[in-house]
């Protein structure tokens, strides 16, 4: 079974098409990613699912543009409710993303993620999924307070992870860093470097998957 790579855009897919895996372009956002992943897994089984692409790095992560993040957890960070200035997550609300068992939208990742991070000199930690890109220092700091070890944010990882969980397939998110999370400064984004980092992480994960018996 070939691994499945899910990316949001054709530009992210372009650097990965020659790798030994199926590449699916989902469109942007967790819903689009979940639907595309579920459809791809229904059409053909996979032994590993990779959510891959570029994203922003939180200031405390120590990652800079051109760096690489490998997920230990994939967290749907904006699921919950606001009570004034306090954010209540699904654990506090007693809600679940699954119909028949507790699950707060914190998805555990492929157990071999630490080895992928070691091989690529990447950061290893939680990657956050949000429905909108964070655009202020204050909002970035608030997310870091809620998730002190968070590395990056993207818009698809939790959707991919949710579909993989339902299919019983291990999942990993790989994010090349294009910019710091915070005020939006497109002129400073390093997209080619982030795409190169993404490829490096995906290739390392695929190599390891094959070494482990694929």
From TrEMBL:
Origin superkingdom: Bacteria
SUPFAM superfamilies named among the record's database cross-references: Purine and uridine phosphorylases
Reactions this protein catalyses: futalosine + H2O = dehypoxanthine futalosine + hypoxanthine
Enzyme class: hydrolase
Domain Nucleoside phosphorylase: 22-202
Function noted in UniProt: Catalyzes the hydrolysis of futalosine (FL) to dehypoxanthine futalosine (DHFL) and hypoxanthine, a step in the biosynthesis of menaquinone (MK, vitamin K2).
HAMAP family: MqnB
Protein name: Futalosine hydrolase
